[in-house]
Amino acid sequence: MKQQLHIVGGGMAGSEAAWQAARMGVPVVIHEMRPKVETFAHKTGNLAEMVCSNSFRSDDDEQNAVGLLHWEMRAAGGLIMASADAHRLPAGGALAVDRDPFAETVTERLTALPNVAVSHEEITDLPDEGHWIFATGPLTSPALGDAIRAETGTQALAFFDAIAPIVYADSIDMDQAWRQSRYDKGETEEERTAYLNCPMSRDQYDAFIDAILAADKTEFHDGETATYFDGCLPIEVMAERGRETLRHGPMKPVGLTNAHRPDDKPHAVVQLRRDNALGTLYNIVGFQTKMKYGAQTDVFRMISGLENARFARLGGIHRNTFLNAPTLLDDQMRLKSKPNIRFAGQVTGVEGYVESAAMGLLAGRLAAAEILGHALPPVPQDSAMGALVHHITGGAEARTFQPMNVNFGLFRPVDGLRGGRRGRKDRYKAYTDRAKAAWSAWLAQIELDAA
């Protein structure tokens, strides 16, 4: 009987790892403690449940690094991207998904495979034998976290993630809000009108900032310290950095024209993005928060069009634990002190659904190849996947290591291209062209070796 691959955690990374390994012919057991053991953020027992945003961010594979990562995952037959595409929602140039059907599809497709089993129990230690991938994500259980710290001999590295609230669509006042994607981006009318926009005058904005700063916030436990990931800063943290910070961030008014008053330029705009296929739910874009629930309803109802808003979910904050991967993991994503164990997903120090699933894809393929007795060729560093895994397993400075989204700053320069903003379009296109060629060649080599 072939050796099994055990995967701890059924989120984005664990689900993608299981799919890739199973499709290579390796028996897989997914150990997912939900719903037997619940977490703060999860609501179901489905695999790949989305707990924060419903967005996979930009889908532009020529000018955006995360869009390029989408392309590479699709080329590799990724389950996460196929399921996201199947449940895509209008979101301008972004890839947003209907979160519940998305997770249901991932769960159904994985459990339909004859060599995949799901075991609902909590794993609390690091086994000495067998082939394992730990993809427990930002909500690694306290017991397992203690086991990881005991093995690695390091203090827990952590930051805080915040969740944005979700509003019932029928409670939004469309006499004040209007439908438009920023700069009318999108190839169809549905894409060009994917967002709801709520305008604010200068006086409304100033009062809103005052209310955010004065609102009651969730306090951390005694002795609990961590930084925030810059891509998910709570709005109150942004407001504390300066009164104009939000207006130049998620509330920027550029690229939008008020359909009700075209000549009235808003001082700031709050955008909401559709959160489900029915269009009954919208999330407030960029409005992660640690305000207490009562304060949230009071503050958010100050927004034009949301005066009578009803909330399907209010915002929240949770701790995200990650490894100092450059110190602890080898270039095969194995734990150096226990090479029978690989790590994948956010716990490795990548940030975002797409990056987590991408590291799951690699970990699943690497582990399956090892079990089957043939090593994979090195992941090409010029691909988005390779640039990201190189960063976390050695390219980053261990002393200052922090979670990272995929970005073109991780890519090796292309010779002969102009630097600066004016050369950016040509430079990014050169990065993506080179990456696609490298990734396609790598996939072709794997198929040739397996034949």
TrEMBL record:
Keywords of this entry: Cytoplasm, FAD, Flavoprotein, Methyltransferase, NAD, NADP, Transferase, tRNA processing
Record-annotated MnmG N-terminal domain positions: 5-373
UniProt GO cellular component terms: cytosol
InterPro entries for this protein: FAD/NAD-bd_sf (IPR036188), MnmG-rel (IPR002218), MnmG_N (IPR040131), TrmFO (IPR004417)
Enzyme Commission number, as recorded: 2.1.1.74
Cofactor(s) of this protein: FAD
GO MF annotations, alphabetized: flavin adenine dinucleotide binding; tRNA (uracil(54)-C5)-methyltransferase activity, 5,10-methylenetetrahydrofolate-dependent
Localization in the cell: Cytoplasm
Catalytic reactions on record: uridine(54) in tRNA + (6R)-5,10-methylene-5,6,7,8-tetrahydrofolate + NADPH + H(+) = 5-methyluridine(54) in tRNA + (6S)-5,6,7,8-tetrahydrofolate + NADP(+); uridine(54) in tRNA + (6R)-5,10-methylene-5,6,7,8-tetrahydrofolate + NADH + H(+) = 5-methyluridine(54) in tRNA + (6S)-5,6,7,8-tetrahydrofolate + NAD(+)
GO biological process: tRNA methylation; tRNA wobble uridine modification
Binding site for FAD: 9-14
HAMAP family: TrmFO (MF_01037)
Biological role: Catalyzes the folate-dependent formation of 5-methyl-uridine at position 54 (M-5-U54) in all tRNAs.
Name of the molecule in the record: Methylenetetrahydrofolate--tRNA-(uracil-5-)-methyltransferase TrmFO
Originating species: Pukyongiella litopenaei
